[in-house]
What does this fold into?
Amino acid sequence: MQKATCHGCGEEFPSRSAIFRHLKETSGQCLSKEEYQGYLQYLQEQDRHKVLLLYGYCGLEGTEAAQKLLKIVQGEDVKPDKINRSYANIGRRTQLVKQDEGTGGVISEVLATRLPSILEPVDNWIDRMNTQLEPEGIYLIGRHEMKGKGGTFNAEIDVTHRRVEYMLPLDFLYCSNIENMSRDEFFDTLPDFTETSEYVSKVGRDYPTLATVKYLFGLKRKMQSLTTQIIPMDADEHDSSAKKMEREQQSKRPKSQQKSKNGNKPKTNLLKRRRFHNFTPSCMAHEYVAYRRMDRVYHRATIRFDGERRPFLVLSLTGDLFLHGQVCRVIGVFLALARGLVDQDMVECLFDEKYGSLIPTPAAPSMGMIAGEAYYVNWEGKVKAVLSPRIADRFSEGWNDANTIKRYEYWKDLVRERVARAWLTGGFDEDGRLLAEREWTETVLEPWSQRANQQLEEYRQWKQASLVVSRKSAAEVSELIPSLNLVDPTVPAVFEKVLRCLREADASGLWPSTTPKRQMVMISSLTDPNATDEDFLPNSLADAHGKAKNNKGQRSSAYIFAEGEGGASGSFSVGAMPGDRCIQPKGNSLFPELMKAAFELEMVLRPDREPSSTIAINRNAQFRPHTDSGAGAGQSTSLIVGLGTYAGGELVVEGEKKDIRYKAVEFNGWTQRHWTMPFKGERFSLVWFTPKGCEGVHGIDLCRQAGDNNNDYGRKETLL
It folds into this structure.
């Protein structure tokens, strides 16, 4: 660190900050009166307050662009975790909402920082900054000083909704279902238009033909099917989240429409969020962040550049928060629907939270994605200013002035053109087909469609069974599982001892209760016909999640459990748990013989594998798609095996089914999403793993230590 010297007393200090502390503590006694007044004036000029910067960038990653902006504007480097911008994920502390890699560009982003006041006009200051920023791929659009209550504004957390765009070459929509029309003829059917203009004739036609209007209307319906839906709600349904929304709307109605004395309630339409777990590579349905609102997807503009015949569609998406990868996957599903590669009921399958399997969706190339505006509706009223670039007369301050709008429009057009050029850089084939589109279609979309149609057929069978069978949850699919009469009951010799111990533990009545955290990823079973409203099986995943999370009494009663047939009948751990102060699993003392036999089984199944520290023992448990908490250590994979007489119950890892009945399978439980298929019969499973904090700890050694403590020296049991 560079040292500094006080000009008054000549004393040397390790930094400028140390000099400032010295002058503050001594009230500048070592300086002359004129020097001290100059020092105070300098401090006044350096007094910083919260300022919002509206800017865009292209060809840069979000944090990199923000750092370069602040370096030029503030004259100093800023650490990434100190940057407060609208598309960051620092405040939420989860990678599930981080900005997509490879985004084509950003039209506008808001950054909150502290800057000194400027004496020159804001427009002049912005123009001066842009002379340095624009060569770096950054463009400053606006500046607004937050006054009064604005000091607590957070550019990331306080966003009420966002808008993103996708620049789509029309090549992606030209396919075999476009009859009697060449590629160029198909391109010519769409005249240009933008957000602020009428249709523009660049292809000899001012308005689309009737056939084109019908085609565009069909696309619109497919886009709408992917958005948040308004649904009718029966007031008697057992869905606490829906009942809460219904009560809020009921209180706002006129008294004549409110609940009558006899208790009857009118049916209500509700705007219900959807779970977008299938539209992101790492989020699960039971996670709250998957429960999102996407209000609108629509065709915003058709644009051609420099007289090109090939048009680009600007598709606009608006929502409360976009998950990592969500936008590109929404576009991918839309293209599959538009090209007729999957049926429309695929949308129902993707959003059905009761369906126990993941259906990963195809991600369109990220180069077409453009981040749009972030809106701060709640804060605009507080600070009396427009905080997004738009024409509005509600407030006189903010980013609604002509110069800001002009800069915004300039940068928006520039980003769109750059993204369009990026699409074209790969060239075309001999038939004039865009190579970027052909490669994505052949390597991503078409292979996905083949798998998706198989998964859709399985979903239809599951859905049909759920309509026929009156029982709930996993029992709905019992008709789809092979009969137990077809299952070979023979137990391989190596598994006999462990299975005997498992059955004895099951019959003992001492099987530990399932923790609330583990219940959150389990599928509940049959409903007790004598259950009260308080015990009612949750109809929605949100209710099930909340009931499991808040249940602190009878830990295994978050659902009404039933033995077998996929009921979440119990799960506990044995072995070591991380941390010196961590309470070790009570299964160690309850079932020492089972613990020892299970750790010995791992050594027989995988003699070359480093022994694990911990085992999860599951009885008749069907798990939702999830990843294991914490992080693996000691080995990078988990080892699982199934035991018992059951049918179905395969392990699915990232969409790939694996038969684990008396067959050990390794997988990365911390990074790969995995779940259990429905099953019939008696199903146990053992999962060996080593959590972070248990490096070098072997569960088999704990068994030996326990044996020594019990004076059980030298006794060796075999599994055969």
Notes: The longest helix spans residues 435-468. The longest strand covers residues 105-116.
